[in-house]
UniProtKB/TrEMBL annotation:
Cellular localization per UniProt: Cytoplasm, Cytoskeleton, Spindle; Cytoplasm, Cytosol; Cytoplasm, Perinuclear region; Cytoplasmic vesicle, Autophagosome membrane
Protein name, as recorded: Ras-related protein Rab-24
Membrane association type: Lipid-anchor
Xref: SUPFAM superfamilies: P-loop containing nucleoside triphosphate hydrolases
Origin: domain of life: Eukaryota
PANTHER family on file: PTHR47978
Enzyme Commission (EC) number: 3.6.5.2
Gene: RAB24
Organism expressing this protein natively: Branchiostoma lanceolatum (Common lancelet)
């Protein structure tokens, strides 16, 4: 990946313990370690991945921010210039959806060109036990319609919908006429 251009800056935002790091870990390295004790992100972490869209290469530069409110000022720095934001909430924690709304407002107020993807995390937990669901799916889609966003529910544990989420992000970016210049017009080989 060294030296390759980052076309699309993507930022992950959301409440602490919401599953952002696990989502990136699953997407970039296809792994999830349930045994590993939770470690809160400090500052932010960066990773990149190339995605093919319509025969063209989009490089996603993904910033995983810290959810802890202690690092809020820092997280605000990381969404600057982002073309897409994956705003995460934990499907088993209703407070995390309130926090997601906070980030959506931040983005709407400061980064007009940033597309918002609402990502419900830990879907495996609510599939195992329906009572564990604390964030209603239809409520999230109604809200998404209001703010012109998309909703996707994922599980980093099983991998369900994780690649699909980032593919949506890459497609949304590459197919936006405003970004046509940025997307490398070369074909992906191999
Ligand atoms: N069962 C299940 N657990 C998950 C899933 N995603 C994350 N977790 C767990 O939830 C906890 C928090 O996940 P993280 O990915 O570290 O959360 P985060 O949003 O990056 O947290 P901060 O760095 O503090 O902002 C960890 O113990 C994970 O193992 C999932 O899809 N399923």
């Amino acid at each position: 990946m060294a030296g390759s251009r980052v076309d699309c800056k993507v930022v992950l935002l959301g409440k602490a313990y919401g599953g952002k790091t696990s989502l990136v870990e699953r997407y970039l390295h296809d792994r999830f370690n349930a045994e590993m004790p939770y470690q809160n992100t400090i500052g932010a972490a960066f990773g990149a991945k190339r995605v093919e869209v319509d025969g063209k290469i989009v490089t996603l530069g993904i910033w995983d921010t810290a959810g802890s409110e202690r690092y809020e000022a820092m997280s605000k720095i990381y969404y600057r210039g982002a073309k897409a934001a994956v705003v995460c909430y934990d499907l088993t924690d209703d407070g995390s959806f309130e926090r997601a709304k906070f980030w959506v407002k931040e983005l709407n107020d400061n980064e007009e060109a940033c597309r918002v993807y609402l990502c419900g995390t830990k879907l495996d937990l609510v599939q195992e036990n329906r009572k564990a669901r604390k964030v209603d799916y239809h409520m999230t889609t109604d809200y998404a319609d209001e703010i012109h966003a998309e909703v996707i529910e994922t599980s980093s544990k099983t991998g369900f919908n994780v690649s699909e989420l980032f593919e949506k992000v890459a497609e949304g970016f590459a197919r936006d006429p405003a970004n046509r210049q940025t997307v490398q017009s070369k074909y992906l080989i191999g």
